[in-house]
Amino acid sequence: xxxxxxxxxxxxxxxxxxxxxxxxxxxxxxxxxxxxxxxxxxxxxxxxxxxxxxxxxxxxxxxxxxxxxxxxxxxxxxxxxxxxxxxxxxxxxxxxxxxxxxxxxxxxxxxxxxxxxxxxxxxxxxxxxxxxxxxxxxxxxxxxxxxxxxxxxxxxxxxxxxxxxxxxxxxxxxxxxxxxxxxxxxxxxxxxxxxxxxxxxxxxxxxxxxxxxxxxxxxxxxxxxxxxxxxxxxxxxxxxxxxxxxxxxxxxxxxxxxxxxxxxxxxxxxxxxxxxxxxxxxxxxxxxxxxxx
Amino acid sequence: xxxxxxxxxxxxxxxxxxxxxxxxxxxxxxxxxxxxxxxxxxxxxxxxxxxxxxxxxxxxxxxxxxxxxxxxxxxxxxxxxxxxxxxxxxxxxxxxxxxxxxxxxxxxxxxxxxxxxxxxxxxxxxxxxxxxxxxxxxxxxxxxxxxxxxxxxxxxxxxxxxxxxxxxxxxxxxxxxxxxxxxxxxxxxxxxxxxxxxxxxxxxxxxxxxxxxxxxxxxxxxxxxxxxxxxxxxxxxxxxxxxxxxxxxxxxxxxxxxxxxxxxxxxxxxxxxxxxxxxxxxxxxxxxxxxxxxxxxxxxxxxxxxxxxxxxxxxxxxxxxxxxxx
Lengths: 293, 326
What we know:
The complex is a heterodimer of chains A (293) and B (326).
Chain A lengths: L1 H31 L6 H17 L4 H29 L4 H23 L15 E4 L2 E4 H23 L1 H11 L1 H6 L4 H23 L11 H14 L4 H22 L7 H12 L14
Antiparallel strand pairs in A: 1-2
Chain B lengths: L6 H5 L5 H20 L2 H26 L7 H17 L4 H23 L4 H21 L1 H4 L5 E2 L11 H24 L2 H11 L1 H6 L4 H27 L1 E2 L6 H14 L4 H17 L7 H15 L3 H15 L4
Antiparallel strand pairs in B: 1-2
Helix pairs in contact in B: 2-8, 3-8, 3-11, 3-12, 3-13, 4-5, 4-6, 4-11, 5-11, 9-11, 12-13, 13-15
């Protein structure tokens, strides 16, 4: 029982970071129908920026904010600089997905070129060795902070989307682009906000993942794929679904590692993707998508 | 004017005598190449030949049938390891090659089943998941992957008194020629037309009597057969395989080759393979810039030249044909 609770808690902490990644993916998918394959790489770039800022003696909050801004700026710049242009040239959805892949490759190259491929560690103010014992479960400071980051990030996004005028515009735009344009909503601006917010969420996940993993140019690949799996599990067009899916995935993964097999722990996410897509392609909380000829 | 008046004419490989002469020249150059170029260049040409087969297979799936797959590295790994084990058990080269292709094709049918219900980005994720899952299974399952030291594969014994490098080159180029001819025939047959119909509007195709299940699965099977053969040939060239070779970057490289070479074009597939082989060689001193070159080229291609390198060639040719008018 103790062991179960302990692993469930570890899983929840990991799942809350997957949730941040998944929320970013879903936010972009809902508003522009584009699957952003560069999501993980934008986060990697911004985390490395945070690393550089910390190395040159800036305080942690400054580095954190700076990297958030960089991540959001890259997302917005990509939207205006490339996607809008491509749309003007008549690119289809598939083309835009491939464009994000191109961005991912560019960022990868730049990160390797600027920071090198050797793994480094991010100096992080929260330690993962200091622990608290709550009930039966031992919680490290880092795991608690991770959980808090996930919850706060999700909550802020919820408030933005559901309680503000901007959020209303975002929902309208993702519901029906044409109608939103007709009603005078500046859809490009709204969509660029979606890209910026999504990238910033990914950056938060990246910064909280960096102390647990080593910081190398590909460290976000795995969490990014897990976030994808979580988004698919919850439903690609549902924001609450992303959080639910991510938490389920995190716990399931942690329990698989504890009780079944440690080697194939990471394979689980991909089995989940394939099974969910086969049985219920719209995901747990997603809406069914209809199609016309 | 260049009118096609009958199906037989449409099937003909080269319609004009000029095209025939050009084709002959290209063939002559390909045959003479290993006798004038240094061994290193011949080796690179061998790589291009084997990559072309894989890119062609990927192009059948992406370009002609319109099903995205980011999991090609999975099929590559399956083909390569099936080939490796068959060779170790003593199967001759060609038999092992067919075996590798067949095993990959069976895996392709398995992956194809989700494609019956999934479209576009969803299929991309499912296949990406497949690629990563296969990678992790090979990394963790030592019986399949030969453990930490990998599988060693015996080199081909050269015949006809050729040097090993030249012999390998000729074998691979012959295989490429065979696959190219097969692909041409495939895409101009009713099967190829069914693929294109599925790509352009699958529901409309189904209404018109194209059996979606059969043709989507067939497309996956054919494409992964090509990719399996690519994996096997790659394993043969390397002489030693381990699971780390077939990572997600390999899937992305194949995908990039299709997009840059030109979707739905066989010549484009070969150009794309040439691109992804030559760019890392040219930038060998700035390895980290290779993904940047890929990425920038993708952005440029998709925004300015959606048909890729082959589209550019078509436009250039048209320009000279119409000169001095435009």
